[in-house]
């Protein structure tokens, strides 16, 4: 089923690829051609080179959001961040330090295991879950400078325990605890998102409470020619909300803002929040799911833990009814959750997915 002749119109699985970590261990002077992308757009903005406010990723403080004295102002900031950027860095989010620390340690320990051990969690033909790569559908496709493990975390009945790593020994328990914390944050952010959009919050919060949580843990090894490869190609997430934790202070994540790539400068233990296409659709385009990518570093590796949060699949994916009126027609189709995911996995990689959903 999975092979060079496989049906490349299906993105529910990915071809097996070599480990970039193993490749990098050999300390090559140059990068194999399969990783070289020649059309890298280098119009990179960082706060070091451009310190105007327009190019600072917004910062949201959870304690200010929940404090009645500062709530209104911070909510306005959150709404504006989602509207103009589709993202922000979230500080004081209330996730216990220990849970964050343990999760970072366990993913480091996982990637430090011998390849053979990691391969016990390797993706199986026909599935994206496990250790491997995503969206590789042909043998001549360019490859990202990235190794990853992708796991379904919540609801618990979605967990595919046979794929969850048994080593390091505390990995499973740590990821379970971490996922519960991410669920709490997603539910809270869904409430503030609804408040920002002035739509009914209860149903949305319930949908995130019972929603799907899937984690992609990324390793970007050091690369001898970082300007010629890409860690993750530009994309927007198909989630509702994405919560990304940086495991160190090496930057790599970039968002497209007004046609320029803006680097996210890691802040210790902050969570990078970005919306995915489900929220873009729900907001009828008031919020936009931002395009983003990861670049890599010559000397240092980088790891990220990315939780994709989806509302409960019994909820349709479509514009919120309060945002639709004769003057504000729906800009996106309403699909069942299953239809939405089907459209995503059957899409061609050449067309922006969101375009398939526009009216
Ligand atoms: C992703 C993603 C970026 C990063 O996994 O969808 O955008 O910096 N990751 O790891
Ligand atoms: Ni992403």
Textual characterization of the structure:
InterPro entries: DIOX_N, IPNS-like_FE2OG_OXY, IPNS-like_sf, Oxoglu/Fe-dep_dioxygenase_dom, Plant_2OG-oxidoreductases. Residues 211-311 form the Fe2OG dioxygenase domain. The chain is an alpha+beta fold and 359 residues long. The protein has one domain (20-356): B-lactam Antibiotic, Isopenicillin N Synthase, Chain (Jelly Rolls, Sandwich). Helix content is 26%, strand content 18%. It is built from nine helices and 13 strands. The strands form two sheets. An eight-stranded mixed β-sheet has the order 2-3-11-8-13-6-5-4. Strands 1-10-9-12-7 form a five-stranded mixed β-sheet, with no helix packed on it. Helix 3 (71-84) packs across helix 6, helix 4 crosses helix 6 and helix 6 (171-197) packs antiparallel against helix 7 (202-209). The longest helix has 27 residues, at 171-197. It is globular and about 60 Å long. The two termini are 35 Å apart. The relative contact order is 0.17. The structure holds N-oxalylglycine (OGA) and nickel (II) ion. N-oxalylglycine binds at residues 216, 218, 232, 237, 252-253, 292, 294, 304, 306. Residues 216, 218, 232, 237, 252-253, 292, 294, 304, 306 line the site of N-oxalylglycine (OGA).
């Amino acid at each position: 089923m999975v092979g060079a002749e496989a049906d490349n119109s299906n993105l529910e699985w990915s071809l097996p690829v070599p480990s970039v970590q193993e490749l990098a261990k050999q300390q090559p002077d140059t990068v194999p051609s399969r990783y070289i992308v020649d059309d890298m757009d280098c119009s990179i903005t960082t706060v070091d080179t451009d310190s105007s406010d327009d190019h600072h990723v917004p910062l949201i403080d959870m304690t200010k959001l929940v404090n009645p004295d500062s709530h209104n102002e911070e909510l306005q900031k959150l709404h504006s961040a989602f509207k103009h950027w589709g993202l922000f860095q979230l500080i004081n989010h209330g996730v216990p330090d220990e849970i964050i620390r343990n999760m970072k340690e366990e993913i480091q320990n996982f990637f430090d295991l011998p390849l053979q051990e990691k391969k016990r969690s390797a993706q199986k033909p026909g599935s994206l879950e496990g250790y491997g790569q995503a969206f590789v559908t042909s043998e001549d496709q360019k490859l990202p400078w990235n190794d990853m493990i992708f796991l379904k975390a919540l609801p618990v009945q979605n967990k595919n325990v046979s794929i969850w790593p048994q080593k390091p020994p505390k990995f499973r328990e740590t990821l379970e605890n971490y996922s519960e914390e991410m669920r709490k944050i997603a539910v809270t952010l869904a409430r503030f998102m609804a408040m920002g959009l002035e739509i009914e919050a209860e149903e949305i919060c319930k949908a995130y409470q019972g929603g799907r949580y899937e984690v992609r843990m990324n390793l970007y090894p050091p690369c001898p020619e970082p300007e010629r490869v890409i860690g993750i190609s530009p994309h927007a997430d198909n989630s509702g909300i994405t919560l990304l934790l940086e495991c160190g202070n090496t930057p790599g994540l970039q968002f497209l803002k007004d046609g320029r790539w803006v680097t996210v400068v890691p802040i210790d233990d902050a969570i990078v929040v970005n919306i995915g296409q489900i929220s873009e659709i729900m907001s009828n385009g008031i919020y936009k799911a931002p395009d983003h990518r990861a670049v890599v570093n010559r000397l240092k590796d980088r790891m990220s833990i990315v939780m994709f949060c989806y509302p409960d699949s019994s909820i349709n994916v479509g514009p919120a009814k309060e945002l639709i009126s004769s003057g504000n027609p729906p800009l996106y189709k309403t699909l069942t959750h299953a239809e939405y995911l089907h459209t995503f996995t059957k899409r061609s990689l050449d067309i922006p997915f969101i375009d398939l959903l526009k009216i």
